[in-house]
C-alpha cells in the first residue's frame, strides 16, 4: 500500500481547515451529531479525492479507533467501523470544493478499560533494566491510542479539560493547567503569583527550582532566589522562614513575595502541620503567597502525612508531576485559583507551551493518577504505598550491613551515604551493572513494578550492597580493628603507669592488693605488663598482615578470610585460660584478675583491706572501654551471623537498638552500684561521727548516672536517623537539644570530679585552700610527677578537652568521621590517653592519702583531717 497522502495526514491533525471556519463548522456538525445520536467529540479530517479515503481509514484501523464519519447533507456521506465496513458514497464532481469536515468518535478507554488484560506500559521499555519485568502495567497504551485529539490551545480537547478539572477537585482548587514538565509548571506558577519587581522567592537551598531548572525562575520572573538552609537538615520550618523572610521597607533588601516549598524534598516529607504553620504565617503578612513544588506530593500523601486537599489548602498554587512515580510519559499540572491559572495560561502560550493535540499526554496522565496514585484525594487503593515499604526495606538492608543514610526513608526514595561506606559512586554503579541492575549512585528510587518483582530485585541489590561494603573497606571493619588496637595501647599504657610509679617509689600492687613478687629475682610488675602488651601487639600485627597479604583488597577474598583478624580474640581468651610458665601473666595474678572481674561485673566492691581501690580502678577503666566492648560485640555478631562477615561495615542490626546501648551503659551502672554500696556501708557503720553521712558517695553515684541520658538520647538519634524514630521518621529537634544538654552536664560534672575529688587538687576549692602559701595555686602540697607544677596545669586543661571524646564517639552526627581510615582508632586512642592520665594522678592521690600520717587508714576511715576534708568529702 502506498504511503498515506500528505493531505490526509494534515487533515487528521486539523491543519488544513482555517481556524474561523473550523469553529463555525464544528458548531454546525455538533448539532448534526446530536441529531444522529453521535458523541459531540470531533476530529477534523480532510481528503481531497475519494480514492484517498482508504488510506485515512488505514490510519484509523492501526489505532483501533471506532469511527463514524458524517459530512454535510449537501455532500456525500459514508460510515465506517474499524475500517472494515465501508458504505457507499456519492462521489463529488471533480472541481467541486473538497469535503473538509467529519466526525471521529473516539472512546476514552480509561473510563471502561479492561483491567484484567491490560497491555504493556507505554512509558517504560518492554524489559525493565531492574528486574526484566514483563506483564501487567499501570498505564494502558490503548488509552493513548483511543484518546481525543482536539486543540488544547482553544480549550477544545475534552480529555485535557477533564484532567484539569479532575486534578483541581482532588486538591481543592478552582482550576488546573496541563503543562509539559515540572520545570514549566514551577515557572508558570511563580510567575503568575509575582507582580512587580523588586521581589524575591524564599526557597530551600536544595530545591529543584534553584539547582535543576537552569535558572528559569530567575530569568523568567526577575525574582531573586533567597536560599534557606533548614536547621533540622530535612525540611524548612516556620522558624527558618521567620529568620530569612524580608517584610520590612528597607530599600537595601529585596522583599519576599513568594515562599516556595518542595514536598517531598529528597524523599523527605514535610509534615502537614508544618505546612499549615507556614501558610498561616504567610496569610497573616498579607503580602506573601505560597507555592508548592509538589512534583512528588503524591508520595507524601501516600505515606499518610495528609490528603491532597489538606495539603492543597496550605498553598496558593501547586505543581504536580505525572511522570515521577506515577509512570505517565510526561507532563505536570499547575492547580490554583481560577484567576491565577488563567494568567498562567497566557504565560504558557508566551513561552511556547501551548499544546494542540494534548490528549495523547493527558489521557495517559489520567490513568496514571487513578491507577498508580489511587482513588480520591488520599490515594486509596494506589500502588505508591508498596514502593514506600520497599524503599524502607532497602534502607534497612543497607544500614544492617553497617551503611549510613543521608536522609531518613519517608517515601520511595533511599539515599545511601557512599562516602561513609568508602566507595565511589562510579564504582557503586559499576557493581550494580555487574549484578544486572542499573543504579544511579547513592539515590535509589523504588517503583511499583520493582515492588511487584521484589523477589528478584531485592536479592540482587543485597549482593550489590555486600560487595560495596566489602570493597569499601577491603580490611576488617573500623570498629573492631580500632577496638583491638586501643586495647593493646591500653596495656602498654598500664605498663608505663606501673613503670613510672615504680621509679618514684609508689607501690601500685600494694595499693590494689595485687599479689606481690615472691622473690627478688622475679621481674617487676611493669616488665610483665610490657611482655603481655608485646604478645598482644605481635598477635594483632601478624593477623592483620596475613589478612592483607591473602586478600589483596579483593572483595570475595576479604569475606572468605574474615576469620583471620578474629583470631586476636582467641589469643586474648587463651591468655586467661592457659597458664604460661614464666609468661606475661602468672597464675596467681590471673586468678586475682578473674576474681576481681567476676565481683566487679556484678557491681560488687571489696572492703578496703581486700582490694577496694583495685575494684574502683578496674570498674572505671571499663567505663572508658564501653564503646570498645560494644564494637567487639557487633563484630562478633557479624562474624557468627549466617551470611554475615566481620570484614563488612559495622552492622547495627546485631542488637544495635537494644543490646549495644545496654553494653554502653553497663560499666556506668556498675560504678553507680559500687557508689551506692559504699553509701550503704557508711550509713550502717557504728562510728558515723567519723564517717559523716556518706553524701560524697551519693554525689559520685550521680556523676555516673549522667552517662545514661547521653546513651539513651544517642540511641534515639540513631533510631531516628535510620527512619525508625518518630512517627514521621525524623529526629525531633528537641531530642538533639536534650542530647546536647546531657553532654554538657556529663562532661562538666566528670571534669570537676576528676580535678577536685579524684586528684585532690584545690582548683575548685575555696579561696583559702586554693591560695595556700605552701602549695602551687590550685594544686596540692605533695606532687610526685615532674616537672611540677607545670605538668599538673597542662593535665587539667588536657583532661577538660579529652572529657569530650567519650561523647564524640557516641554522637551519630559525627558518623561521617568513620569514612576516614583510622579515625575511629584516633578517637579510641584519645580516650585511652585520658584514662592513662587519670590513672597516673588517681594512683598518686591514693598513695598520698594512705602514706600521710593524718590521712586514710587501711580501712578507708579518716583518722584526722586531710587538707581540710572530712570523710564525707573524700571520694573514689
Automatic annotation (TrEMBL):
<dbReference type="GO" id="GO:0006545">
    <property type="term" value="P:glycine biosynthetic process"/>
</dbReference>
<feature type="domain" description="EXS">
    <location>
        <begin position="651"/>
        <end position="874"/>
    </location>
</feature>
<keyword id="KW-0663">Pyridoxal phosphate</keyword>
<feature type="transmembrane region" description="Helical">
    <location>
        <begin position="563"/>
        <end position="582"/>
    </location>
</feature>
<keyword id="KW-0472">Membrane</keyword>
<comment type="similarity">
    <text>Belongs to the threonine aldolase family.</text>
</comment>
<dbReference type="InterPro" id="IPR004342">
    <property type="entry name" value="EXS_C"/>
</dbReference>
<dbReference type="Pfam" id="PF01212">
    <property type="entry name" value="Beta_elim_lyase"/>
</dbReference>
<dbReference type="InterPro" id="IPR001597">
    <property type="entry name" value="ArAA_b-elim_lyase/Thr_aldolase"/>
</dbReference>
<dbReference type="GO" id="GO:0016020">
    <property type="term" value="C:membrane"/>
</dbReference>
<keyword id="KW-0812">Transmembrane</keyword>
<keyword id="KW-0456">Lyase</keyword>
<protein>
    <submittedName>
        <fullName>Threonine aldolase</fullName>
    </submittedName>
</protein>
<dbReference type="GO" id="GO:0006567">
    <property type="term" value="P:L-threonine catabolic process"/>
</dbReference>
<dbReference type="InterPro" id="IPR015422">
    <property type="entry name" value="PyrdxlP-dep_Trfase_small"/>
</dbReference>
<dbReference type="GO" id="GO:0008732">
    <property type="term" value="F:L-allo-threonine aldolase activity"/>
</dbReference>
<dbReference type="GO" id="GO:0005829">
    <property type="term" value="C:cytosol"/>
</dbReference>
<keyword id="KW-1133">Transmembrane helix</keyword>
<dbReference type="InterPro" id="IPR015421">
    <property type="entry name" value="PyrdxlP-dep_Trfase_major"/>
</dbReference>
<dbReference type="Pfam" id="PF03124">
    <property type="entry name" value="EXS"/>
</dbReference>
<dbReference type="InterPro" id="IPR015424">
    <property type="entry name" value="PyrdxlP-dep_Trfase"/>
</dbReference>
<feature type="transmembrane region" description="Helical">
    <location>
        <begin position="532"/>
        <end position="551"/>
    </location>
</feature>
